[in-house]
Amino acid sequence: MAARQGRQADSVDLVSESDSEDSEDMSGSDADEPSWISWFCGLRGNEFFCEVDEDYIEDDFNLSGLASQVPYYEYALDMILDNEPPADVMLTDHQHEMLENAAEMLYGLIHARYLVTQRGLNAMLEKLKNCDFGRCPRVLCDGQPCLPVGTSDLPGTSTVKIFCPKCEDIYYPRIDYQVSRLSQG
Question: Is the per-residue pLDDT at 12 higher than 70?
Fold first, then answer.
């Protein structure tokens, strides 16, 4: 995260138009630094996320309607895809934090859509088989692997829970899996 925070400087109005569409620099794939998606999914508390394929994110059809739900949408999308910001864009610490929060919200919304695709379902099936979401706490369920479930479609209204398909009950995940940023996906 420290490397990501190093991209800030003085100030810029994030909502003003800029040359962000003209900047097609894809130099964010350094061998020694993981992609934003890998970094984000690897954060503690984000274990329930799977890595969404970049080609899915780059398809505008899959992102339809999200621009109106996420502040600084274009900047957040560029951050997720590791596109470097235009050279004339300088961010304060506060603006960088707002942009990071917007990128996290956008990724959660994209993730929720990705999960209903065949590739998304396969990725979650692998996590289920590996018991990445935890096991049912009831003794009679005999360690049944659980699935994450959102109780609301609105980002930030509740945290993720886990669902046991055997007893059909919903539980709070163990404290080390408590996910406060997960946007129902």
Answer: no
Cα–Cα distance between 73 and 6 in angstroms, integer? 21
pLDDT one-digit tens code per residue, 52-85: 999 999 999 999 999 999 999 999 999 999 988 7
**Quick one: residue 168, left, alpha or beta (phi over 0 = left, psi -120 to 50 = alpha)?**
left
Q: How far is CA 167 from CA 3, 6, 149, 152, in A?
A: 45, 48, 15, 21
Rounded Cα gap, residues 158 and 34, in angstroms: 29
Structure tokens at 149: 């479930």
Place of tokens 């369920």: 141
pTM: 0.73
Query: Is 171:164 a contact under the CB 8 Å cutoff?
Result: yes
**Helix (H/G/I), strand (E/B), else coil: 38:** helix
Is 151's pLDDT higher than 90? no
Query: What is the rounded distance in angstroms from the CA atom of residue 170 to the CA atom of residue 149?
Result: 8
Other CB atoms within a 10 A radius of the CB of residue 17 amount to 8
In contact, 76 and 70? CB cutoff 8 Å? yes
